[in-house]
Amino acid sequence: MTYCVAIKLRDGLLFASDTRTNAGVDHVATFGKMRQLAEPGRIRLVLLSSGNLATSQSVASLLELGVRGGDPATNILAVDSLYDAAVRLGATLREVIARDARPDEGTDFSSHFLLGGQVAGEAPRLFHVYPQGNFIEATRDTPYFQIGEAKYGKPILDRVLDYDTPRDEAIKCTLISFDSTMRSNLSVGAPLDLFWHPRDDFSAREPTRLAEHDPYLAGLREQWGRGLRQAFATLPEPDWLAD
Amino acid sequence: MTYCVAIKLRDGLLFASDTRTNAGVDHVATFGKMRQLAEPGRIRLVLLSSGNLATSQSVASLLELGVRGGDPATNILAVDSLYDAAVRLGATLREVIARDARPDEGTDFSSHFLLGGQVAGEAPRLFHVYPQGNFIEATRDTPYFQIGEAKYGKPILDRVLDYDTPRDEAIKCTLISFDSTMRSNLSVGAPLDLFWHPRDDFSAREPTRLAEHDPYLAGLREQWGRGLRQAFATLPEPDWLAD
């Protein structure tokens, strides 16, 4: 399984993903699910993927070949709008699924992608690209997307996040969301990859990797547990219930 | 959809359920999912159900007919152990599914039940009864079960609950878990039914119904939102991330 979140904030885009994949509980491996394609100074694309690993790796390989090949028709970086990048990603995804899938077999070949980033001259944008190749875009009303094992970590995002949330609040909220998911589902696991794209920044940047026993994560978990217990202590007692 | 939780605590058993059912978003109705069968002074059974409403209503009707009929072989209250009640519930569930289901149709006829309660002379016990008719029992290590739309509300239970949690803490935690689920999934909705079985209590008792705009629930939600924001404010800043 997988858990990925991407958030469109006023100040930029935040991306986070786990690194665990599994085909059955006895076949667990570590694969990054965050990829960056960029041309410093002009465009940055960040991709997160969930679902069939063969499909999402093939899509990424084909996109990278397209960038190296330099033909503008197949180069996802040769676009003037993130919208066109989403179209190309969707077409490549559909192409790989059509190539590999056998409709009469039970295997699920589908993958989902979150694609976010910015082209110089446009605001940062964020898309959820479906296995069918079409996509939806995040807005101020719905500023985040999740793919993979999304339910455990959704309530904390719904309670805390909006478009105006400052970057560091969003990072804390996202890491708590991952912690909740990892506690409830063994198939989502550390290390975590985190990337911040500040609005209008086209410098070369690498994601941050947080290991399972990263001291910041450990402190966050402990402090969050303490904070929750304090929040509980202040809740009104259910004195309407007889003993 | 449905969300039900039952918890085995040192002091007794706590049950909670929502009341929304739906067959498509344009066919939403209110049905209680909590039922009690009891013989004051000797035995109390509380049932929570999720899944196919026709199946769970039929199972409840057959159990009630069995109690009225008075034949000990089909009377779920004529047992000396909760274990035997779980066996009878499982058999009735299997019987209804076998009667109604047509394997070649796509409809899912399955239901899940949580069965908890106490027979005089035994400790309180709690079971999760599967559509196959078999069941598992809650223990000190795993003191709670959920059925229905369980994922959104699981992290808060995992962080707060254990066998030694006092009743009122467990009630608050359960209501927060329901609030998280109702925010994230429209098919789970108020009013909520709540029942507390104190260990060794066999008096007649009714569940408490909390309406959507119940002032206690509203206060709990508001205070919890405030508590979470305070908990967030105390979390360490991610100062390892460059601007």
TrEMBL record, chains A, B:
SUPFAM superfamilies referenced in this protein's UniProt entry, alphabetically: N-terminal nucleophile aminohydrolases (Ntn hydrolases) (SSF56235)
Domain of life: Bacteria
InterPro entries: Ntn_hydrolases_N, UCP009120_prtse
Protein name, UniProt field: Peptidase
Organism (species): Crenobacter luteus
Lineage, uppermost ranks: Bacteria, Pseudomonadati, Pseudomonadota, Betaproteobacteria, Neisseriales
